Structures are given as C-alpha cells and as structure tokens.
Amino acid sequence: MTIFLFFFSLTIGKVAIPFADIFDSTDEVTRNLVLNYRLPKSITTVLVGLSLPVAGFLLQELFKNPLAEPSVLGITSMSSLGVAIVVFLFALIGLDVWLNNPWILIFASFIGSLFALFLILLLANKVTSSASLVILGFMLSGITVAIIGLLQYFSTSEKIKTFLMWGFGSLSGLSWDQILVFALFVGIGLILSLFTLRGISALLLGEKYAQSVGINIKKIRLLILFSSAILTASATAFTGPIAFIGLAVPHICRSILKTGDMRMLFRWIVLSGVFVMLLFSIITDMFPFGTLPINIITSLFGAPIVISILLNHKYEVR
C-alpha cells in the first residue's frame, strides 16, 4: 500500500499524469515534471516520514512520556532558530551565496536541536507530569519565537518572506543535491537509532535489569539524543518545522500493537510514518486552489491526539 501511494503521489498535482506515463513518457514536459519536481517531492516525503516519527519514538522512550515529540518539546523550534540565524545573519553580513548550502543549513539546525534536547533533558528531571513537560516545551518555543522575531526585525522583507514560507512546512522545491544530503543524515540517524533498540527494551524492565544484561545506560541515552537530534534537524532544515507527526505515528502504533517488542514497534513506526506522510502529501496536492502547506494537515491530525493524551490521566504515572 505504501509503495502504491508513492507512485500515486507522482500522478497527483495541478496536472494529472496517467500512471503509465510516470515510468515511460515520450513527452518532455511530463518527464521533466516527474523527474525534477514530483519525484524529489515524493522522496522528500518518504524521508520526513522516516525521520520525525522515529525521532518522536526515541524521545518518548528517553523521557518515558507519550507527549515527548520534537515539535511539542520545542526541539523543532530550536532547530528552526538555527536555520533562522543562518538565513538572517548571513544575509545581514553579505554571505547570501552560502544560504543554499545544504551542509550549513543542516549543521545549524542540528546545533539548535541538540542544544534544545540537552536543555529539556536537564529540565525534565525537575518536573513530574506530562503536562509540565509540555508547558516547558511551549516556553522554549516562545523564547525561540522571540529571538527569531528579533532577527526578523533587523532583516529585509525579502528574507522575512522566505523564512515565513519555509516555516509553513513544504515538501517540494528541494534539489537533488539537497535530497542526497537529507538522505545521508536520515540514514545516519536511523542506523544510530537501531543500536538503541536493545537498550530501550532492557530499560523497560528497569535500570538495574538493563545493567545486569550489560547495557551501558549512559551510552544508550547519548545515542538516543544524537540520533533524535540528527533526524529532527535534517527534516527541519530541508522541509521546515513540521508539527505533530513525530507524536501521532508512534502513539497510534503503540495503541494498535500494544507490544513491548521494540524492534517490531520500530518497524511499524517506520512503515506507518512513510504511509501517513505520503497520504498527507497527496491530500495537500488535491486541494482545489493550490498546494496546502503540510503543517496544516499534520496539525489537524496531531493536535487532537495531544489533547486526548493530556486528558488520559493514566499516562501521568508513567
């Protein structure tokens, strides 16, 4: 079904393309549209579907909190701040030529997300409830918005418009060079996250049990931090701050599977994340007056899930 959605997404848009023509079209315009616009967009969608749900899953296991997710905890906002610093400061000091460099963007985004993760980890030791952790995340987002606003105040209207459009979240417009860098970082993040699964499974039975079976808890936590930071940073740098998908997909998979098998849960989260993102991407393309920003769809989908978790008091004791 996911494979079908991937190819179906190549046929949807302002110009409908017959299914057979996406593989072998004699029309130059159609071939150019598929190869240089729709195929990069579908691959970008898959990469986001791989990265954000896995990052959300890792953070939920790290904090033992079902609301831990990059956008809810303010990690996406801090990652955005890294990109904003590059966009506005580089323009201010005349280094605009470096703005399209994917390595600089992803490095700035990674520094922002890593800093946010360490800050949240530090603050999480002082709060006991899910709601408090969410409030901390919103406060962190608020501080980030204020700093970005300050940067915008001294920037040109052209750069402000560019940053605002990026902030809506977009899966299209990436070059093949950017996609290669994006895929490289998502691959690194996923490989690192695979090394955490055994440790996460053991930690479900307590730290003493994990240590008794040879798990290095500090190493596992650092791996979770780095892999979730890389996954969040890569998605944010190239597609903008996409909200809630990192929370909703792991939550739905846990609710359906009800399993403690982390490897099985991981596989389902990966597959479901790609499926959901492809579905949302197709929905945005079917809007009659143009393509909707992806954040509108993910927020409509994810916000009710956050509310339902907050209203479910049994998670407070987790």
The count of helical stretches stands at 13
Helix/strand-derived category reads mainly alpha
Helix fraction, binned, reads over 70%
In terms of DSSP E residues, the strand content is under 5%
Q: How would you sum up the global shape?
A: globular
Radius of gyration: 20 Å
The residue ranges in which pLDDT falls below 50 over 5 or more consecutive positions are none
**Average pLDDT number:** 81
- Main sheet: strands, sense, barrel: none
Overall number of strands: 0
For this entry, give a set of tags.
318 residues; mainly alpha; globular
List the helices and strands and how they pair.
Elements: H1 2-11, H2 28-63, H3 75-92, H4 102-124, H5 130-153, H6 157-167, H7 176-194, H8 197-203, H9 207-212, H10 217-239, H11 245-257, H12 262-285, H13 294-311
Mind explaining what this structure looks like?
With 318 residues, the chain is mainly alpha-helical. Helix content is 73%, strand content 0%. The protein contains 13 helices and no strands. The protein has helices at residues 2-11, 28-63, 75-92, 102-124, 130-153, 157-167, 176-194, 197-203, 207-212, 217-239, 245-257, 262-285, 294-311. The longest helix has 36 residues, at 28-63. The protein is globular and about 65 Å long. The model has no long low-confidence stretch (mean pLDDT 81).
